[in-house]
Amino acid sequence: MSTDFNFQHPPFDQLDPKQRQQVSTNLDIHYFQSQQKIVTAGEQASYLFIVIKGQVEERADNNAEVFAHYTVEDWFDVRSQFGGYAKHDYVALEETLCYALPSKVFRQLVSENSDFGDYFQRDLATRHQLVESREGNKNLAEFILTTIDEKNVQPAVVIEGETSLQQATVIMREQKLESLLVNHDGCFGMLTGTDLLHAAVLVQQSLDTPVSQLANFNLISVNKGEFLFNAMLLMTRNNIERVVVKEQQKIIGILEMAHVLSLFSTHSHVLALRIARATTIEELSEAAHTLNKLVENLCNNGIRTLFIMKLLATMNEQIISRVFQLSIPHQHHNHICLMVMGSEGRGEQIVKTDQDNGLVIEDGYDWPEKQQQLEQFSQYLLQLGYPPCPGNIMVNNPQWVQQQSQWSETIADWIETGHGDAMMNLAIVLDAHAIAGNKSLLRRLRKDLMAQMANRSVTLAFFAQPALKFHTPLTLFGNIKSKQAGLDIKKGGIFPIVHGIRALALEQAISPTNTLERIEQLAKLKVLDEDTAANLTEALLLFFKLRIQQLFPAESEQDYHVLKVDQLNHSQRDLLRHGLHVVKKFKQLLALHFNIRDY
């Protein structure tokens, strides 16, 4: 019997008091000498072991292959608890102490407690969700996942298009409304108090003017059942303060920004409005420099990493687009397209990153002040906290500002070169996302890129090869390999997934730039099986989450790509190790798929 067992680590924290007492009553401590076999392949399971001290190696019964390495607070052999017989040998590499929980007791707990059993029986994706669901501020997290329904939608008051300006004003005042819906010949538009004020005071229209002449009939809508968070992003992107809510194409109400703000404690929409309303670079700078604080607030309150990334991507897009409007005269906007690349282009930022941007210009368009105005654009971004790109991938570099036909020729040259920097430049352009100007210019360029890469298997193999460049930070025994300075999670985990998926997406001519969306599309096309797709998604989100958690409080000169493994708890280390094994397996898949023999 042992009373010192730590019940705070998942999934043992899911056991109720009676079940914990059952564990304590039946738990024993076993001692093993160095090189002593703890479990023998082919034997029936007797115990689930949890390491107290020492190291244990999982290997084939002929010692030909090592599968994993277990250390303090790791458990083994879970597989045999359900399958009946051990598949591999487990050997103590040094003097080792283990808790031993009888298999009969373990299986009883699994059958009685579904949360406890799920943790052992499911894959990385489920483990990540189980751990994440128990962390952070659940009240705020619940808001982020709140769906749109009758409780947070305001009823829509509908008036006819013939209603006069004066009558509409009276209705708004009597019913204390900020907006009305206008029905004109079966079409619905929105009329706001601002519209009425503008018509009556600034334009001085007659009070008898029909409201059909004042309403906006280009309504933006959301559906009942969608996430409230997504409605907030939609309002942010379109710089509006309300959307209509539909159920099966029927308008059932209005969702207003003010009401959303009353529910959302981070006030991110207030920040979006400050960005949209900024008329000088100084005003925009004040808003831009609060972004990292917003991310810290969301992180500390337990908001899911995916939502943080979506929100940050939207805010960054709004900021850079506003800088574009402040630095590039409006007459040029319809003839040029500003594109962002790298993590910005994929929508996978967790902090404000380097400037990675370029420009597509309409063929034959004359722009004499181009260089001066693009230099100003880059300087403004620097003032807002976006440092220059170390590789000089910026609009003040003429290499990344070209007319459409020039871009097509450049891309053709990169494809013909087929290796080295040319392939990485191709990867950069492949992730480009249009955020300002004439966005159709980039769509045409992307279509041309896909056409030029069709049926080029050798070039695709060279393109995919960098995903295999960096060593997966796992030891020979399958444990996490980390230097004293920490683990470079970008090289060891994030880049292999991002670039490998990018290569598969290019092969399949998949349009989305976001890695998670690419994974989803590859799964639909059966290029990836469902389990692989789910594990890659969760591994990538895990790497982002661990990286963002170590950003706050920020340290001077901190490299946010480096994970301090010694600061992770047991659950995080366990998930990280499983995530890195997902990466290792994916790299093997890539090498086989693209026939890369030197891997």
Automatic annotation (TrEMBL):
Checking CDD domains in the record gives: CAP_ED, CBS_pair_CAP-ED_NT_Pol-beta-like_DUF294_assoc, NT_GlnE_GlnD_like
Show where the Cyclic nucleotide-binding domain sits: 11-127
Task: List the protein's name.
Answer: Cyclic nucleotide-binding protein
Q: Which organism is it from?
A: Agarivorans gilvus
